[in-house]
Design goal:
- The protein is mainly alpha-helical.
- It has one domain (2-129).
- 85% of the residues lie in helices and 0% in strands.
- It is built from five helices and no strands.
- It has helices at 2-25, 27-33, 40-67, 69-97, 103-124.
- It is globular.
- It starts with a helix and ends in a 6-residue tail after the last helix.
């Protein structure tokens, strides 16, 4: 099970980096998917910084953690909690603004990532092997 969780975590890390690259070169396609409309150069810069930069960083931390036993547990847990934070913010936003069916895919993907990364962090924890 630990190997499966590590493999799935690695796939999440690679997917995040790939999506970050996609966001860098196809910024307006990504912002159209998210219903955001960047205004001018500053808006495009902000979209690239948020999508490319944060996804590269999260993917990189996952992959680094998988390759480094010392950092595996805290890095996987941290990125899992970030994805969990996305879900909490989405739920609050739905309560404030209403629900759009297009949100289902994002919430589902974030929930899967949260569960996999937190489970992988627990499987990597020294306490879990006791």
């Amino acid at each position: 099970m630990k190997m499966v969780l590590s493999l799935l975590s690695g796939l999440i890390g690679v997917a995040l980096i790939v999506f970050g690259c996609y966001a860098m070169v196809a910024t307006t396609i990504v912002t159209d998917m998210t219903a955001l409309v960047p205004k001018g150069v500053a808006g495009l810069n902000e979209a690239r910084a948020i999508y490319a930069g944060s996804f590269w960083a999260m993917g990189g931390l996952i992959l680094y953690g998988l390759g480094s036993p010392r950092f595996r547990q805290p890095f996987l847990l941290s990125i899992g909690l970030i994805f969990g934070g996305f879900i909490v913010a989405r739920i609050i936003s739905i309560a404030m603004d209403g629900y759009d069916p297009s949100l289902g895919a994002a919430i589902g993907a974030e929930l899967v990532a949260t569960l996999i990364l937190i489970a992988a962090s627990r499987a990597s924890s020294p306490v879990s092997s006791v």
